[in-house]
Fold this protein.
Amino acid sequence: MKRRNFLTHLIGGAATTLGGINSEPVISYAYAKSVLNYASFLSTIYQQAIQQGMNAKIMKRALNFSTPNAKVIQLDRKQPEFTLTWQQYYQKVITPAKIEEGRKQFNILQSLLTHIWQKYQIDPSIIVGIWGIESYYGKYLGKFNVIDALATLAYEGKRVKFFKTELMNALKILDHRSISPENMTGSYAGAMGQPQFMPSAYLQYAVDFSGNNQPNIWTNKKDILASIANYLNKNGWHASEPWGQKIQIPNHLTSSLFGHHISKTLREWRSLGVVREDGSEFNNLDIYGSVLKPNKSGSQAFMVYRNFNIIRRYNPSDYYALAVGLLRDAIVS
């Protein structure tokens, strides 16, 4: 059975069982039951969307799947065999080619980034850093149909309530005519476009910076980069502060003082023997920072500031936020 043929019949009233589709091969009862259950689930989603005033034709077109996406289920259930060390993660996500492309894009887009800075007061190189980490500057958006992926995860994923909410948000985006169902592509978990926004983030932060009436985070660089800036701005970015910097820490400094949740003034850190990577002292001793040591056994350490935690709101991972900051530094170095 094709994955896109059964719900149309169910919603349209042409068939409620598989027996009426004469061209289909004989299939097992268990499979038929599974297909019927999923179609019934999608039919419920469709009815809820219609009750919220969404366009019936668009909803029918968007929800026209007969079975959950097996690849999405596989990726959702896959357990990593090991956890990457910081060095492994860094080498994987920050390559020389990515740095070179980031510098190229940063230079090409200077005029646009300046306009975005004037409106949102976000460091342009941080915007490019997030863009690079999320989608390699638009090269890797994900090839999954977002509705297909979210519906699958809302039906039998690990967090069905969360993904059902995101599914309904994705349908709202389609109802707004922001994009067609077929072109709404993203990751297996429903992260969309070049900034990799979940549908809820799109509705809250995506902006139409190009003046085309609808935010386009898939192909329009003006909207893509401005939407990233708007996300950071709305989450409290501090324009006068950096994200962080490399530091030296004394061997006697206890690990209980490490972590982005422990904040002290740079004056206090200096009294504990913490200095810049080159051994010099910090400039502004009154601002607050946190010491982060991504590998407990390694020597590399960072002083991170309030903007580091803003980056973590984009993705709540220390490795991710460090990668964004370090890619930013490499782009402008």
